Amino acid sequence: MRMALSLTSAAGKQVQPLVGNFQGNFNMEQFFRRKDKVVVVMGATGTGKSRLAIELATRFPSEIVNSDKIQVYEGLDVVTNKVTEEERRGIPHHLLSSIDPKSNFSSRDFTHHASVAIESILARDRLPIIAGGSNSYIEALVNDYAEARFRYEFCFLWVDVSLPILQKFVSDRVDRMVDGGFVEEVRQIFDPEGDYSQGIKRAIGVPELHEYLRAERDGADERVLKILLELAISRIKDNTCRLAFRQLEKIRLLHTKWNWNLRRLDATGAFLTDGENSVDVWEKLVLEPSSRIVDQFLCDGSRRITTGISTPDAVSRAVAAVSR
Q1: Which residues of 188-202 are buried (b: 16+ CB within 10 A; e: fewer)?
Q2: The listed CATH number (3.40.50.10330, 3.90.78.10, 3.30.390.30, 3.40.50.300) that belongs to domain 35-162+258-314
Q3: What is the pTM of this model?
Q4: pLDDT one-digit tens code per residue, 275-296
């Protein structure tokens, strides 16, 4: 007796092969192939995400994909705190100063452009490192883009700093940015009828300086201008601190919502240490642990890397070690 080629259910209905019933574009090669590795560096503004990404890229053959929704735009390099050419240390950066500043660059746009950049980096046998503070962009790429779930395995590094310490740091950073030409950059794009809801003009610092620049244009006296500038700088600091808080809340939400395996690296000790010792503490608390995590991630094709968190004791030991 010949064996029937089609399977039948108990009810006598023919059971169709699963793959034959799949609707839509389905690439079997993508489904079965080993996933490509992608590193994601997350954290609130001012925590050192770009620094860590660049340092990792000097240890592993890598290129960086910017995931900051304001730094993608051309212009306002000081206002948006972009890494300089010197700070990039020759590491290629994608989606940095590459988008028309008047356009609206959505999460969907980021997903498309980032995936193109990732594929081009992988084609050169290099490691894509995504770094930036716009967690909605990262969420869109990792969870909303079905292709990414099939193609990539992600390693999440979260650079964290105690919020009170971070708030003081970002406040001081605003002062340094003002000294570095912050106001002049905004002055160059000032429009008294400007719309601050689109493009690069959404950047913190642009709407806050509107009243000052309008008064300056109208010829207000120096006393009034000084008061308005001080108020604007104060608002910039407050809004930057609020941004840091929202970013931290979003990171915690992503961990809870999607069960991302976030590797938290507590950099607080480096922010509490001055001078060259700060570099040593950063290396002990952030760079060296991150390098080990990435090295294991790249070598490990199957095991899930367990979550590790720098404890307060670990921070204290690292600070003490370089202070001796």
Answers
A1: ebbeeeeeeeebbbe
A2: 3.40.50.300
A3: 0.83
A4: 889 999 999 999 999 999 999 9
